[in-house]
Amino acid sequence: MANVSDDPVRNKLVNSLARPGENITGFTDIAPELAGKRLELIKETVQNASRVAVLWYPAYSNVAATAQAKQLKETEIAAAPLGIRVQSLEVQTSRRL
Hints:
- By secondary structure, this protein is α+β, with helices and mostly antiparallel strands.
- It has two domains: about 1-30, no CATH class; about 30-90, no CATH class.
- Helix content is about 35%, strand content about 10%.
- The chain has helices at about 35-45, 60-80; strands at about 50-55, 85-90.
- Strands 1-2 form a two-stranded parallel ribbon.
- The model has no long low-confidence stretch (mean pLDDT about 80).
C-alpha cells in the first residue's frame, strides 16, 4: 500500500499499524493514534504553545471526512492533558491567495 488515505486497520487491510500481520508494507498518512505524539513534539519544540489549529477540507469524500473527524477528536483528547487548546479551521479553497 502507498499513502493510504483511510485507516488500513479499520478497512481490515492489516491487523494493526505496529504489527500488520501479513506480507504487507507501506505507509498511511492517517494515523489518529499519533495525535498525542504530534502534540508532545509541538510542546517540546514550542514550550509556550497553548493553541494548535487543525485544518480540514470539507469537500473530501465521506471516507476521508470520517478520517478527518477521527483525527480531530483524537487531537482534542490528547491536547487536554498538555494544556493545549485545539482550534478547528475549515479550509474554504485550495486556491492560493
